[in-house]
Amino acid sequence: MQRRALTLTLSGTTVALLTASAFLIPTPYAEMSPGPTYDTLGSYSTDSGQPAKPVIAISGTQTYPHTGGGQLRMVTVEVSRADYKPNSVEVLSGWLSSDKIVVPRTVIYPEGQTAQEATQQNTAMFDDSEDQAITAALAAKNIKPLRTEVIVDSVTPGSPADGKLQPQDVIDAVDGTQLANPNDVHTLIQKHKPGDTVVFTVTRDGKQQQVSVVTTQSNDSGPSRALVGFLPGTQNVFPFDVKIQLDNVGGPSAGMMFALGIIDELSQQDLTGGLKIAGTGTIDSTGAVGPIGGIQMKTLAAKRDGATVFLTPAANCADAVKNVPSGLRLVKVNTLQDALTALNTLRAGGTPQGCS
């Protein structure tokens, strides 16, 4: 009896310890869930009490209001905070949930990347996606850019450029030499030795100024060279101004929906035909639509917010059909023109190509 009692006691203790560890020991996972959606034809209001502002603001040319009640909704995925480390019970709950996805933490926050760096990277991708969407949309309206500018795409935290150069600075010259493309920035910096000063002529908030940055030495496996600590990019300048005004959203996945919203604003024809349409997909300047992450969470967000049609990148179709919400029609798109053709078909009462 004593041995049996001891065994039962030890077993109970083990179970208790295992149960406690399930609640206490963090795991290397993160969660994704349906995020908010935004009508690119509508206005966006923050929680800070600021006045609502249009998601897409176009000035300097004719635009057309549409009052038919249709929507073009971009969708987002909510991700857990960088410091969130779910325990085993929370991970299991996420795996069993129909409105959450549990993924390795490194999928959202790569190893060695801080939360600040992840945010900066997502912001840079969003800014690039915005420029690509504007270029693709205006190309569909046969409007070409006046010129292409070299800009500061992102700045490395703690680098010599940190606090001196800012994202979206237009780089007019390096050491007095004007630029033809982003590669010129690297070439001109490499003429210096570590510890030298590089003088950038930049336009910031409409005002041109000179910014001096002392270079540092590279610390990677390559040959020693001078570094400043920012990534150059490009942006196109058009005959009129197009701005996408959406706070707290990052990444490139809204590109196609932004492009459609811009086209709608510039067209007498209402693209939606009164339908509530959602969608996702990256876009490049040629109008090619690319895949995105979290497609099943995005279709849930679209359905939750009233969409009946979901424009789906062709490469995401196979995953999207696995858990498509009832009443949401998936439409397959490879290009911006595919999306426009599908919208024409829907307005005419037809059935565009779906995911299968």
UniProtKB/TrEMBL annotation:
<dbReference type="InterPro" id="IPR008269">
    <property type="entry name" value="Lon_proteolytic"/>
</dbReference>
<comment type="similarity">
    <text>Belongs to the peptidase S16 family.</text>
</comment>
<keyword id="KW-0720">Serine protease</keyword>
<dbReference type="InterPro" id="IPR027065">
    <property type="entry name" value="Lon_Prtase"/>
</dbReference>
<keyword id="KW-0378">Hydrolase</keyword>
<keyword id="KW-0645">Protease</keyword>
<feature type="active site">
    <location>
        <position position="298"/>
    </location>
</feature>
<protein>
    <recommendedName>
        <fullName>endopeptidase La</fullName>
        <ecNumber>3.4.21.53</ecNumber>
    </recommendedName>
</protein>
<feature type="domain" description="PDZ">
    <location>
        <begin position="150"/>
        <end position="206"/>
    </location>
</feature>
<dbReference type="Pfam" id="PF13180">
    <property type="entry name" value="PDZ_2"/>
</dbReference>
<dbReference type="InterPro" id="IPR020568">
    <property type="entry name" value="Ribosomal_Su5_D2-typ_SF"/>
</dbReference>
<dbReference type="Pfam" id="PF05362">
    <property type="entry name" value="Lon_C"/>
</dbReference>
<dbReference type="InterPro" id="IPR036034">
    <property type="entry name" value="PDZ_sf"/>
</dbReference>
<feature type="signal peptide">
    <location>
        <begin position="1"/>
        <end position="30"/>
    </location>
</feature>
<keyword id="KW-0732">Signal</keyword>
<dbReference type="InterPro" id="IPR014721">
    <property type="entry name" value="Ribsml_uS5_D2-typ_fold_subgr"/>
</dbReference>
<dbReference type="InterPro" id="IPR001478">
    <property type="entry name" value="PDZ"/>
</dbReference>
<feature type="domain" description="Lon proteolytic">
    <location>
        <begin position="248"/>
        <end position="346"/>
    </location>
</feature>
<feature type="active site">
    <location>
        <position position="253"/>
    </location>
</feature>
